[in-house]
Amino acid sequence: MIIRHYSLRTYAYDTGYMAGVARNAALHLSYFSDVGNANYMSQHFSPALILPGFLFYIWDNPCVMFIFQNLCIFISIYLSYILAQIVLGERKWAILLSFVFALNYYLNNVNGSGDHIETLGLPLFLSLFIFIESPRSNTRIILITLISLLILSIKEDLVLTLGFFGVWASIFKKGKMIESIIIAMVGLIGFYFISSILIPHFAGGVLMFSGRYSNFGSSANEILSTVLKQPHKVLLSLIMPPIKLVHIFSLFLSFWMLPFVVTKVTLTTLPPILIHSLSSYRSQYAFAGQYSLPAIPFLYYSSIYGWKKLCDHFANKPESESKRRLKRISKFIITLTILSSIVPLIQYGSNYAKFNLKRYTYFNNNIKPLIPRDSRLVSPNHIQPQFLKNRYSGILSCRESMATNPDYVILSKDRIPTYWQKDNYTKFAEEILAKYPVIFEDSTYAVLKITSDKEPTGYKN
């Protein structure tokens, strides 16, 4: 991810958005988003962004967000092993399943689209499962409460998932009623408070997710009412378009279909999967990038129990036959796991192959010095995070980006920036090139200084 950043191939609405808010939260105690030009609390409820934001005190660079995200993932891999060992009681199977987790396609795909605070939910949910599976103690009850409260600060969909997990645990986890009630209450009450009071307060009453769930209502209460009163509408939305079913199947397939072996624990996967499957936003129902994160810990949790059930099943058969069949299944899963490692190897290997520090050095030496730190700037999504230290660093995503009154605009000449149609971008670029003075231009970028009158063209390379 750091290589992508230094190859000028990061994305503003992921890296720039999150890094900008995190930096502002830690350095300026403000959740204002330069990219979205709004208070981030009106988009999602993610006060936890201040945690990676403190890293900007150590290194004032968006790369600290990549480091934080990958630390969360590496800690999760270790916790996945601990959880599997507690449930299965055998080290070899715990190692096998932790590899299934570490090489999961969706988990590795998260790093392909920038940084996301949702990755903090991975170690937190896995820790929650570990404490639920462990003997009760006052210390563990306190830790469960603290973890649940911290999950409230990550993102509202994780909060709803937390609440439903608490409900599930109160039904199926005997002897863990106190822990289950705490989790359910924190999750469900927290979600209501966040979605019905906090986000509408910061958003002026308009919820961001209303467009993606407009078929069910424009508020959390309306959506819940539709789900309860018109279940047929919900079921229809799950299969329309039909590709949604393929995406759900692929999600389970990435865990070798082990969750389907045990029905009871697999029920925990339904809330995070349904939340995104019911959306009309393609990336969301396709579980692309960060949208798979809420489901991953629950799919892994049910995978462990699926494997446990297989082991218990063969344990009841004659020893020679059970060992032979379990060995075959183990070899099959090991083979699939090894083959799945090809995906992240290609993904990360391609980044190394494309790495060219010369391009970044040229950009850093010739373009960045032209734009004063106290100026307002809009630039294409793949370079916007490079200007987080500016007074304002927004994304050039549409014509309306000019409404932020920038002092400088950077145009991309070697590609059509994300969110633009080719014809619209070409026409827009021609218009502002004719209207504003160019202070730098080469085959890759054009830097314009926004003034009232057209001035002589500046430096060209």
Verbal overview:
The chain has helices at 2-6, 12-28, 50-53, 63-88, 91-102, 105-109, 121-133, 138-152, 156-172, 177-203, 220-229, 231-239, 243-253, 263-266, 270-277, 282-285, 296-315, 319-340, 342-354, 357-366, 422-435, and strands spanning 32-33, 38-39, 376-379, 392-395, 408-412, 438-441, 445-449, 459-460. The chain has 461 residues and is α/β, with parallel strands linked by helices. Strand 6 and strand 7 form a beta hairpin. Helix 4 (63-88) runs antiparallel to helix 5. The longest helix has 27 residues, at 177-203. The two termini are 30 Å apart.
How do the strands and helices of this protein lay out in sequence?
Blueprint: H1 2-6, H2 12-28, E1 32-33, E2 38-39, H3 50-53, H4 63-88, H5 91-102, H6 105-109, H7 121-133, H8 138-152, H9 156-172, H10 177-203, H11 220-229, H12 231-239, H13 243-253, H14 263-266, H15 270-277, H16 282-285, H17 296-315, H18 319-340, H19 342-354, H20 357-366, E3 376-379, E4 392-395, E5 408-412, H21 422-435, E6 438-441, E7 445-449, E8 459-460
Parallel strand pairs: 3-4, 3-5, 6-8
Antiparallel strand pairs: 1-2, 5-7, 6-7
Helix pairs in contact: 4-5, 4-7, 4-17, 7-8, 7-17, 8-10, 9-10, 17-18
